[in-house]
Amino acid sequence: MTAGPPLALTMGEPAGVGPEIIGRAWRTLKDGSGPAFVVVGDAALMRAQGVPVQSVMAPTDASTVFARAVPVLDVPLPAAVQSGRPDAANAGTVADWIEQAVSLAMAGEVGGLVTAPIAKAPLYAAGFRFPGHTEFIAELTADAPLSGTRGPVMMLTAKDLRCCLVTIHAPLAEVPELVTAERVLRTARVVHESMRRDFGIARPRLAMAALNPHAGESGALGLEEIEILAPAAAALRREGITITDPLPADTLFHDAARAGYDAVLCLYHDQALIPVKTLDFWGGVNATLGLPVVRTSPDHGTGFDIAGKGVARADSLIAALRLAGEMAAARAAL
Questions:
Q1: Do residues 105 and 8 make contact, with C-beta atoms less than 8 angstroms apart?
Q2: Model confidence over 259-284: pLDDT tens digits?
Q3: Nearest 5°: phi and psi at 321?
């Protein structure tokens, strides 16, 4: 796909679907239809997926290996893996894989990182202190230079839709108080800068979803649009950012509406996830914006119920790899 450095792909929870979808993704991309990647994980577990594997010493070896075998930076697990049954004994190594991949990205040895799904319970049991991947990667990159507004901001994307979240995993009852002008302004700045830096869009067009039905109906159905969202949009326009006033979410995601913007600010989880998963349930991607490194992941979990059964689909991981490759190429072109 590109002549740049490969991507680092972390194996994720070893008892989940990560290893098998990595094998399927390699089978799809080994012909050059996507970016080369090097797996940071357990080479023996990767071989168990029925694909040829070659251990490598450095990411630079991956491109020459990729057409014939899955290149792996081998960091073995301490405990045996049983599909569908996570083991906290392996959690420390799972975190080490992520940390190593981030270090490679910050050193420029890989173009970016793609993370297969992790299971939080075994990580927490082993003392992991972060809510998830995103916060861990944000901390690991906190001291690295970044030109612009620092995230992280979660973006879910499918086909031509990019939904960027102002709040993420918050109870719906708490969302109104969390949707502050400060959060909206920071999210919009991160998204605007990322559209330019990571997607090559010179003049990004942003849309803003309203919080209330009918965008509050001039205050009859809520005041957040009048008191918080519209003033924030006006302030952003004064900064030179192209963004709409808050628009009713029920008319924001159809084909004609999507043609009018490059990314949309969504105010809560389901406002973003429902249209993304309706548009492309299998191929959605989670990307983290506003980091010094490129990072994407498939938009699904560990799939313990189907792990090891050979039925897990790799569509989302393949899309995540391709998107990370495109974002890395856009950064390299700056």
A1: yes
A2: 999 999 999 999 999 999 999 999 99
A3: -65, -45
